Amino acid sequence: xxxxxxLNGLLDIAAIPSESIPASARxxxxxxxxxxxxxxRAGENEPxxxxxxxxxxxxxxxxxASVAGLDKMVPARAAALANGAASHALDYxxxxxxxxxxxxxxxxxxxxxxxxxxxxx
Length: 121
Known about the structure:
The protein is mainly alpha-helical. The chain is built from 5 helices and no strands. α2 crosses α4 (76-88) and α3 (47-59) packs antiparallel against α4 (76-88). It is globular and about 40 Å long.
């Protein structure tokens, strides 16, 4: 579990109004999101992604989030696991040179409840 100080810091960042974030940072976030979506779609049929997707599909639980390549909703933590496996299957996420870091696979797979299949364009 995250220490309260870390969690509070993350919540403070999440509460920043988008208009307060510099346009360059929003552009980088959009690029990283697009990058993550494309590598997830590319990796959704890799063996590891299929195995994890099958596992989470069979587990059951509260239907809360979608998984790339799966037609049903699964619990958010299960979606994070499956989408993270798909997005890391080919290990190309966040490899564009404009981005320093590799956070997308740990941030984007589950918390929105959306996957590359259901996220609006």
